[in-house]
Amino acid sequence: MASTPVSTNQPAIELHAGVRKGVAPLRAGEGHSFFWRRLHSLTGIVPIGAFLIEHILFSNAVAINGPVAYARQVKFLGSLPLVTAVEATFIWIPILFHGLYGFYIWYRGETNLVSYPWTGNWMYTLQRWTGAIVFAYIVWHVWHLRFAGVNLHQHPGASFGKVQMELANSWYLAFYIAGLLCAAWHFSYGVWLFCAKWGITVGENARRKFLVVCMALFIVISVVGLLSLRSFVAHPQQPVTGAAADMLEGTQ
User: Fold this and answer.
1) Among candidate residues 143, 223, 132, the one with its CA nearest the CA of residue 182
2) What number of H helices and E strands is found in the chain?
3) Quick check: 218 and 182 in contact, CB under 8 A?
4) Which pTM was predicted?
5) What is the Cα–Cα distance from 95 to 138, expressed in whole angstroms?
6) Residue 177: which residues within 8 A CB-CB, separation 6 or more?
């Protein structure tokens, strides 16, 4: 039987003394799942990753400037044309696909420790479990703040106070912190995996250097997110209903 030809392109996996090192690249011709695995990888960056950056580093970070600034930001987002359709198309559906297909990959074992020997078991395990925690957190977070209780698109002035009511529960606060850190890690390390699998970072040295960049991104997202949470906790409880909330809502 003829041996399988080896591509001349530099793959994301390197051989060192017979040991596979690095990350297996996405290759066409590996079965019908190639398209879905490629889409799963891509949606983790766009649109989900782009939304994460906007949500944590911009929209939520506005809370650091206080309730009025946060109410303005929520009011602006809620006033976007076809906002619910945009959320469903570019946020909820991609997150649902990425999360459920990620569970499927995990269950099937299509990504396993053999492909990641140099990063260590803990990197692989952390990426898988943070994804599971983030998925559960997003479902809970969206339901509580977007659909349960006061409608923040209709009453943006209640937004700061509604988040504060959530964080007043120490268990919820711990869950918020865990969800934030897991999301920051899963995305940051996911960027590294994406670049390795798609052949953007070629060679072990390039991937090692880019890992430092991704870990810096993890720190930035985590710190800004924690500062936002601190602002909600540190401010006096803001109104969720009534005339005071309406005043915040109408603030220009």
Assistant:
1) 132
2) 10, 2
3) no
4) 0.82
5) 9
6) 226, 229
CB 40 within 8 A of CB 101: yes
CB of 78 within 8 A of CB of 10?
Answer: no
Distance CA(37)–CA(48), nearest Å, equals 15
- Tracing tokens 């949500």 back to the chain, one arrives at 55
pLDDT at 64 over 70: yes
Helix (H) or strand (E) holding 173: helix 170-197
Residue-wise pLDDT tens digits, 111-169: 444 455 545 567 777 888 999 999 999 999 999 888 888 888 888 889 999 999 999 99
Q: Which two tokens stand for residue 36?
A: 């879905």
pLDDT(25) > 70: no
pLDDT(13) > 50:
no
Closest CA to 163 of 221, 220, 235: 235
Percent of the chain exceeding pLDDT 70 equals: 78
pLDDT at res. 124 = 73
- The C-alpha atoms of residue 59 and residue 73 are separated, in whole angstroms, by 7
Phi, psi of 169, rounded to the nearest 5 degrees: -85, 120
pLDDT tens by residue, 207-247: 899 999 999 999 999 999 999 999 999 999 998 875 556 66
Q: Both tokens of residue 105?
A: 């990959």
Q: Tell me if 13 sits within 8 A of 22, measured CB to CB.
A: yes
Task: Identify the sign of the CA torsion 214, 231, 64, 87.
Answer: positive
Residue 19 carries which DSSP code? E
